[in-house]
Amino acid sequence: MDSLKKIQQTVFSLHRLPDAEWDMFVQILTYKTFRKGDALIKEGEYEHYIYFLESGATRNYFLKEGKEFTVAFHFSGEFVTAFYSLITGTPSVVTIEFLEDAKVIAIPYRDLEVFYQNSYHGATVGRKMAEMQYAHRLKKEMELLSLTAEERYVRLLERNPELVAAISVKHLSSYLGIQPESLSRIRKQYARN
């Protein structure tokens, strides 16, 4: 499936754009490639784009007293950005790094705001995307408080089993809030199944 078709399916799953508005949206898109280990944005930088992951995966993390804390993973077919920086205009509190080679579609936020002003349907897509981000964040917080580390691991595994199996124990255990040894035991259990 070509990259434009992939982002169109994702956008239209939120709200269908009329052909003329889709054509306007396409005009603001740019295509980029990244290598495993590249940073999409680093802590302290300002975010100016929303990215659609055509292929690849990312990890969002922050540093505190020299220790990394992983807060999110994003996979192919998802949007990713340092939302807090993008919305507030302040430096990013997270670094977003690529876990594998990736192709992305970059959407300049400034151009996107103009598109929203000129497109009722586009503004609806933007609103629904914001609602989806809020719901996703709330679900993650609830899971963190109510599910065991093993249950959270299984949920992540359901999203992208191949990549989750390849994510380092260090990064995955940080995300799940458990010690690497505990994650190794959980992984062994699910590797047998």
From TrEMBL:
<protein>
    <recommendedName>
        <fullName>Cyclic nucleotide-binding domain-containing protein</fullName>
    </recommendedName>
</protein>
<feature type="domain" description="Cyclic nucleotide-binding">
    <location>
        <begin position="13"/>
        <end position="113"/>
    </location>
</feature>
<dbReference type="InterPro" id="IPR018490">
    <property type="entry name" value="cNMP-bd_dom_sf"/>
</dbReference>
<dbReference type="InterPro" id="IPR000595">
    <property type="entry name" value="cNMP-bd_dom"/>
</dbReference>
<dbReference type="InterPro" id="IPR014710">
    <property type="entry name" value="RmlC-like_jellyroll"/>
</dbReference>
<dbReference type="Pfam" id="PF00027">
    <property type="entry name" value="cNMP_binding"/>
</dbReference>
